[in-house]
Write a structure and sequence with these properties.
eight-stranded mixed sheet; binds zinc ion; seven-stranded mixed sheet; Metallo-beta-lactamase, Chain A; 26% strand; 29% helix; alpha/beta
Length: 279
């Protein structure tokens, strides 16, 4: 009994000792850009990654979000694929930040947004690297990224050309599916071997064009983040996808419900915060 009292007193005097030891060295911000994508990742060595810019209306929001964090330069800019909800505000990104290099899949598109992005890459003389299966980069001491897709030069759907990115941080890993559909997802599943994924950034705003049982079984994620607009006209995320995530016991975070979602990792565990409940 006396021992129990001592233990209880220690708990009261020193609450959550693990908290002090927990040191973030990777943060992922899934910025609430409605029915679009823009994901900012910050590393402990000061380097950063920006995946997509949101759509043509999201420029001011994304720029001010990053500027508030004191960001002046983007080390790794990724244009996941040429749809407007991913590259629509790349002009604002290029005009507001110094871009070190850009990764994009080798696929052409006929829209003004795509043509404008290509012109900006040229004008600013930004190094362009093709995003495709196998392209990898060491980002920091225990952080690396690798593109798992696109594998092929040709797919029927533009979404399947999406740059799918895996980031490993110590024992933790994140899989960012962009808008990849089943053709590409099946190839990603093969590429995953038996690697567990901790955090899944769900493909295509939760559309039922991906996030199959096959992927969920193989990747076995604990958490999923969905970037999706409030009451969007497509009805995303689809009921089927949410059901599959539930069946596989995945905890889901949605930007339409929670606003910007922030994940912090120390390489051993991950924690989630929302725009309104930050640490
Ligand atoms: Zn999209």
């Amino acid at each position: 009994m006396r021992l129990l009292i001592v233990i209880l007193m220690l708990i009261v005097l020193f609450p959550q000792p693990a908290e002090a030891l927990w040191k973030t060295n990777l943060e992922m911000h899934v910025i609430d850009v409605g029915q679009a994508d823009s994901i900012y990742i910050e590393l402990s060595n000061g380097k950063n990654i920006l995946i997509d810019s949101g759509d043509e209306h999201d420029g001011p929001k994304v720029v001010s979000y990053l500027q508030k964090r004191g960001i002046e330069e983007i080390d790794y800019l990724i244009a996941s694929h040429p749809h407007h909800d991913h590259i629509g505000s790349m002009d604002a990104i290029f005009e507001s930040f110094e871009i070190d290099r850009i990764y994009m899949p080798s696929v052409k598109y006929h829209t003004t947004y795509y043509k404008r992005l290509m012109r900006l890459v040229d004008e600013f003389g930004v190094e362009q690297i093709e995003a495709k299966t196998g392209v990898k980069e060491k980002l920091a001491r225990n952080i690396k990224m690798e593109f798992l897709a696109p594998l092929r030069k040709k797919y029927k759907s533009l979404n399947d050309h999406s740059a799918v990115l895996k980031i490993d941080h110590g024992k933790k890993s994140i899989l960012l599916m962009a808008d990849a559909g089943m053709a590409s997802e099946n190839e990603v599943v093969k590429r995953l071997d038996d690697e567990k994924i901790d955090v899944l950034k769900v493909a295509h705003h939760g559309a039922n064009t991906g996030t199959s049982n096959g992927l969920l079984k193989k990747a076995n994620p604990d958490f999923a983040v969905i970037s999706v607009g409030r009451k969007n006209k497509y009805g995303y995320p689809s009921k089927e996808v949410l059901k599959r995530l539930k069946t596989h016991n995945v905890q889901v975070f949605r930007t339409d419900k929670l606003g910007t979602i922030i994940m912090k990792s120390d390489g051993k565990s991950v924690r989630f915060f929302t725009e309104f409940h930050q640490s």
